[in-house]
Structure prediction request, 648 residues.
Amino acid sequence: MSGQASVMSLLEVRDLELHYPVKSSGWLGAARSVQAVRGVSFDLAAGETLGVVGESGCGKSSIAKSLVLLNKPQHGRIRFQGKDILRLNRAERKAYRRSVQMVFQDPYGSLNPKLTVGASIAEGIEVHGLYADRSEIRKAVVELLDRVGLPEAMIDRYPSEFSGGQRQRIGIARALAVRPELIVCDEPVSALDVSVQAQIVNLLQTLQQDSGLSYLFITHDLAVVEHLSRRIIVMYLGRIVEEGLAQDVVGQPKHPYTKALVAAVPGGSHRGSPSEGVLQGDVPSPLDPPSGCAFHQRCPLAEDRCRTLDPLLKDVEDSRRVACHLVE
Amino acid sequence: MALLEVKNLSLDLKQGDVSYRLVDGLSLEINEGEAFCLIGESGCGKSVTALSLTRLLPCPPFSYGGGEVTMDGQDVLQLSDEQLRKVRGAKVSYVFQDPVAYLNPIHRVGTQILEMLQLHQPAKATPDRIVELLDRVGIPSPETRMNDYPHQMSGGMLQRVMIAMALASEPQLLVADEPTTALDVTIQAQILALLSRLQQELNMAVLLISHNLGLVESFADRVAVMYAGQIVESGKTCDVLENPKHPYTEALLRAIPRLGEKVDRLCSIPGQVPMAGHFPLGCRFHPRCSCVQAECKSVEPSLESISGQRSLRCPVRQAS
Prediction:
């Protein structure tokens, strides 16, 4: 994927590096940094859903924040429709922010409690001046509520009157309001009950079919991501360890970490008693990533070279990339 | 005889002048050494049920609206405070969702386990026993890790420490309330496997409370599904999961995407989970049910035993 001249790509991320400085311990301590994202490259085509899976600390949310310009990568390039978004002027940045919207994980924390639902949804429309007069804005908001499955009567209510699932619908309506091309969804269903989760997943699919939206869908839930995405990237400690079509990555995982992730899904296709052999130990600290392959300490197959040599993300098959010395 | 027997338990919450019934006529039995799972979505009353097993809820605002909770032959709801102290911890221990919130940040984890030992097993309150407990829950080099403070450990490690603390009193029943929900997927699998191993090794009954039906499959012998303060279906895990009878259980199972089973659309359940105080009349699931009949809207169904260990609260499905 990475090698192709990607004329089709809506979004093109190359060698993204993101570090957060950490206050050192004591005034003589050396300044350290959390290496959240370490050289990540991927493409996203228009109308496609790309799933990003990984455990906490793997850098998936940091990537999401870079895409909506909430943090600034130290290194790398992000191109949206061919334009480098890290070098935009004021006007271009505003236009970009309209094209790329975000839906957050916590529907309780991401809505302003003092704004009515209508005002929350209308905020973006007003900022970007999509409609001039108030009645037109209101009409647009009602239409948005309808699209996400909320009745018009809700427009003057406050977020506290809504359940988690309804708030997530409001969050989605807010993102849709400015007619974006890409929506970055950061764990949008993780905080929801199972029965409501399915509603939101279906809603996201319907919206995509209706208006050709693209999604970058970030989650730790492999089953949800397999269901929604065409392609998946699996991240571990700031790096992509595997990338490919959803059914291939989940059906025939190649990287030992992906294999472990698939095996760890409760009630998955494998049945039987839970085994402790799934994966030993914890994710290492991104403050101090291990030498060589970041996964080698937990990897059941680790060899000597894994401890010293950092594996590159290589093309192994058509549209399949894996970063592992043992996968040819 | 069952280790724990809950009969017709009802629980109310008073807010201002209004009283809400959170749990309504709940009955369940857990045998010695059995792994039992209580499943339900948020607000269904599963966590308050767990806490009421040792009367851990403050009264008021909570109050017990009747029923019996018999733990090892004693009715917990009738015990004095003095007697209750001998049930809490000693017979029933808890592990909760968020270990960070339950561990004291300014004491070493070993000290916190020691406290449990001093309270419940004073003869065994030694460093050796702490090491043994930490080792049992799979903490590497327990001799040094026992001197760690909670902030020096990861979420998965802390949950192991919580489990070690719960085991310190050598309980007959371990109640694990969403013990893996806050953890990463691979760590979740580790903790679940650990609980399963301990249950078998120590012949300890475990009550696992979760919203995730996927967890149950490999863990529990029996399962009960709760909806809006009531058990709607219970039975052997394999029976319930493979052949769900209640429309809610069935819908819940279909709403979860499964690995490697590609479907075009998930089957979602319309509407919202009702809040306590706003439970619908008749069958509480009827506004969201796909096979609702006229009588479901007015007559509240009762939980009927249908075969063997299987119970069901749905006259429509029971008849068919």
